[in-house]
Amino acid sequence: MSSDLGFFANPVSFSGKNAIVTGGSRGIGRAIALELARKGCNLLINYNSNRDAAIEVQRLIHQIGRRSEIIQADVGKISDHEKLVQYTVETLGSVDILINNAGITRVSDILAEKVVDYDIVMNTNLRGPHFLTQRVANYMIDHSIRGAIVFTLSISSQVASDNRAAYCISKSGLEMSMRTFAGRLAEEGIKVNGVDAGVTDTDLARARVPDYVEAADKGYIFMYRPGQPEDVAQATIAALTLYDTGVLIPCSGGIRTPLLNLRSMTELSGNQS
């Protein structure tokens, strides 16, 4: 076994490490990038369409005192992966961390779901991250880098929504992708984990927050509050430092906890027989 324990060391060192964060210009990706910078990482911020947002994240990272580069790349296009990884190596020197965070959704009744919408969600959320992980993992192996890969996953991998079928299927598949890569890469000293994100106040999920709040009020789920991107960022750091691989770090505010607190049934008494 190599004396370099990488992200299996205790403690894990982030100083001078170089990280790719896909979808790093907004929301959860932005929060993850900033938290990694605070820990001592240099960042490659990948964006698809919002360059101004990426430039703002880059500015904030520079204020923290770390290096940052930005690049436009569509994670859903396999042909964009080479330039994404190559640009990171050319500008920062290496890839030590990959955060598979980019994701999209399309809302429609499963009985009316269009093939084109299904395909774009699956390409961005599953096919793209799967093969980007393959590329980065092979790069790490070829350069003897004992790095780490984290997938931003979702409670939607287990909790079905019939008006977001492709999203749920993509996250379920991505969870298995995480686990299979973890099994293959453990012998290479590369850590692979996922973050089980719940209802988070971002552009992607904000419209759904009231539904979950109502469900919590009625006692069907526990959700102390909607999650913030910074919550997922902290969970991502845990995924990078945890002495484990192939596991999900919970970050859902208790939604995974089964409940049946029928709070509206106020007339029930525990003493009735």
Structural commentary:
Helices cover 41% and strands 14% of the residues. The protein is built from 7 helices and 7 strands. The chain is globular, with a radius of gyration of 20 Å. The protein starts with 17 loop residues before the first strand and ends in a 22-residue tail after the last strand. The chain is an alpha/beta fold and 273 residues long. It has one domain (15-251): Rossmann fold. It has helices spanning 27-39, 51-64, 81-92, 115-142, 165-185, 209-218, 229-241; strands at 18-21, 42-47, 68-72, 97-100, 148-154, 191-197, 248-251.
Number of domains: 1
Average pLDDT over all residues: 90
Order of helices and strands: EHEHEHEHEHEHHE
> Which blocks of ≥5 consecutive residues have pLDDT under 50?
none
Radius of gyration: 20 Å
Query: Which structural category fits the helices and strands?
Result: alpha/beta
Give the SSE map.
Layout (H helix, E strand, L loop, with lengths): L17 E4 L5 H13 L2 E6 L3 H14 L3 E5 L8 H12 L4 E4 L14 H28 L5 E7 L10 H21 L5 E7 L11 H10 L10 H13 L6 E4 L22
Parallel strand pairs: 1-2, 1-4, 2-3, 4-5, 5-6, 6-7
Helix pairs in contact: 1-2, 1-7, 4-5
Defining key terms:
273 residues; alpha/beta; Rossmann fold; seven-stranded parallel sheet; 7 strands; globular
